[in-house]
C-alpha cells in the first residue's frame, strides 16, 4: 500500500532550542493514524529531536547527505552518521541543493545509493524551473531527473524511495502549483515508474508535492489521486501551520 506522508523541511531555520520546542509540539499533536509525519531538521538538531519523538507515526529526517561514505571530506555528513542519530529519512536533490550547490544527477544518484545502503529512505526531489515550464520542457526535465537519479536502482531498492515533485517556481513564492498541474505531473511520474518497474511498483510509490503548500490549499492538492502527501517548507516552521496541513490530509 502506498504511504501517505507529510514531511516538513525546516531548511536552515531554527536554533537547537527552537527546533526541539517545535518538535515537542508536533510530537504532542500528531495523532496515530495512517499519515506518516516526518521532520527533516538541520543536521545539528537530529539526535536531540530524535529524543523527543515518541509517536509511532512521527519520523526524523535529514535534508542532505554526503555523496561519499566516509573519510577526509571536511564539513560533510555521511548517510551512516545520519542513520546513527535515529533518522529514517533523508531529502536528496532538493532544488536548493541542485541550484546553489550545483548538485547534478550523477552525484545525487550516489547519494541515493549511500542513503539506501544505510537504511535511510531517500525523499528524492525533482522539479522544473519557471523558464523550463514556460518553454514546455517541464515534463522532459522532471523525467530526466528521475531517470538519472533513480532508474539504475534494482527494484528492491527502488521500492523504498519516496519522490517529491517540487516545481521550483512554487517554492517559497506563495504561488503553489494548481491541483491540476500537480496531478498532471504526478501521473506522468507514476507512468514513468510503471514503464521502468511495472504497474504494481508504480502504484505503491509515494509521490509528494512541494511548493507553497499551506493549510488552505493542502486538502485541494492532496485530494488528487496521484498526490500522496507533501514536502513542506515555510509552513513546517510553525506547529499550527504544519499540523493544519497534516490534519487537512486526514480529512480526505
Ligand atoms: P515552501 O513550502 O516554503 O514553498 O518550500 C517547499 C520546499 O522547498 C520543501 O522542500
Q: What's a concise summary of this model?
A:
By secondary structure, the protein is of the alpha/beta class.
Element order: H for helix, E for strand: EHEHEHEHHEHHHEHHEHEH
Structure classification = alpha/beta
**Low-confidence regions:** none
- How much of the residues is beta strand, in percent? 15-25%
- Ligands, ions, cofactors: 1,3-dihydroxyacetonephosphate
Largest sheet: 8 strands, parallel, barrel
Q: Give the helix tally.
A: 12
Radius of gyration of CA atoms, rounded to a whole number: 17 Å
Question: Major sheet: order of its strands?
Answer: 1-2-3-4-5-6-7-8
CATH superfamily: Aldolase class I
Task: Report the mean per-residue pLDDT as an integer.
Answer: 97
CATH domain class name = Alpha Beta
CATH topology: TIM Barrel
Q: Using DSSP, what is the number of strands?
A: 8
